[in-house]
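Hi, does anyone understand the following?
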Amino acid sequence: MNRPRTLYDKHIDSHTVCDLDDQGHVLLYIDRQVANEYTSPQAFSGLREAGRKVWRPAATLAVVDHVNPTNPNRIAAMPDPGGARQVSYFAENCRDFGIELFDVLDKRQGIEHVVAPEQGFILPGMVVAAGDSHTTTYGALGAFGFGIGTSEIEHLLATQTLVYKRLKTMRVRVHGELGIGLTSKDIIMALIRRIGASGATGYAIEFAGPTIEALSVEARMTICNMAVEAGARGAFMAPDDKVYAYLVDKPRAPKGALWDQAVARWRELYSDPGAEFDVEIELDAGALEPMVTWGTSPDQAAAIGDRVPDPQDEPDAIRRQDLQRALRYMGLTAGERLSAIEISHAFIGSCTNTRIEDLRDAARIVRGRKVAPHVRAMVVPGSTQVRAQAEAEGLAQAFLDAGFEWRQSGCSMCLAMNDDVLAPGDRCASSTNRNFEGRQGAGARTHLMSPAMVAAAAVSGRLTDVRSLPLEA
């Protein structure tokens, strides 16, 4: 009798070419990869120097997203010479190696982890690797995605395989009904706070439970995207009818009889009853409040109604020093109310939270309101297609009427790698995934939260409980 297997086991077993040793290393076949202009240049240069070709060009989708400006009036030219060279070399590599490219002016352009799902490029059961840690996003579709380094990108392009070490497994079961104003962002932030920024290091996380099943596919993507902030090398959920409905009309999804055959196979993608996990965690979503970060790590977070913690309450000396450093960098004082912290910027963007549902949530908050006079507020849609849909639904106009900047798609202010950079001392309410020192600019201070919470902060001028604002002003 076969032992019950986890969904992670099924993904890895079905893609293992051969075992390499008795330590868990295997040669793993990779179905698809997504490339960007920032992490791929050295990999392509390595292929050129070795005289190698890309093994399966059609298995790679290339997207410009990291260094491009997001100015409302988009042009092909890159004002930064370094960024311009990265983008031009990327286009040259895609042309020479036969890889499809969504360049800056392509109507399908956007952040890679938004674009790949909306194109149907990622499907349940696939194993996907890319030169970006947030490739874990694809787990929301029942795929298994993980980030890789530049040397691994080169190996993957040349062979469509990677040397891979099996991970331990963690299952996070989420139950309870999310309250008004609560989102999947609050679920994953609460988990990261609970287990720590390294709490899932060495693990693949499977998210399960009635709360996960009740979430939309886009909300699930937020959870899988940020699981890496707890150290997870992969995160995923069993695909269901919501996933199939999300994918059925996507341009690159199977059609006709192939679709029916695919869905029949996808329905087998679940952890078997009795499958054992190395770690099991239960999380009550019904007990959550809207979350914000106060420090310089995603696990340094609290409910919006709480106060900045006092490092002196931390018994561990090393952690106490970390907390003290975080408060110094953030310019905060122990005991300060989080809801009293004023901001200078509000940013709705990134691969974590700029899909159409995220923009709808935020637009409901800003309608009939104005951005606080001292705040610069920006919305950067996750893809050009999301941007067009938001304009068609009137969301863009709601943001513009409130005083937000309505920009083009790209990674933008999620990271200080393009024109959208904060100055030292700026304090930003952000829907992004990381709040490290200098992440949005040298000396800049970042508070992570959901898009609706960012919208609430933008109009009030400070960190604000979104539940305190009625949906219509």
Observations:
- The two ends are 62 Å apart (CA to CA).
- The chain has a mean pLDDT of 97.
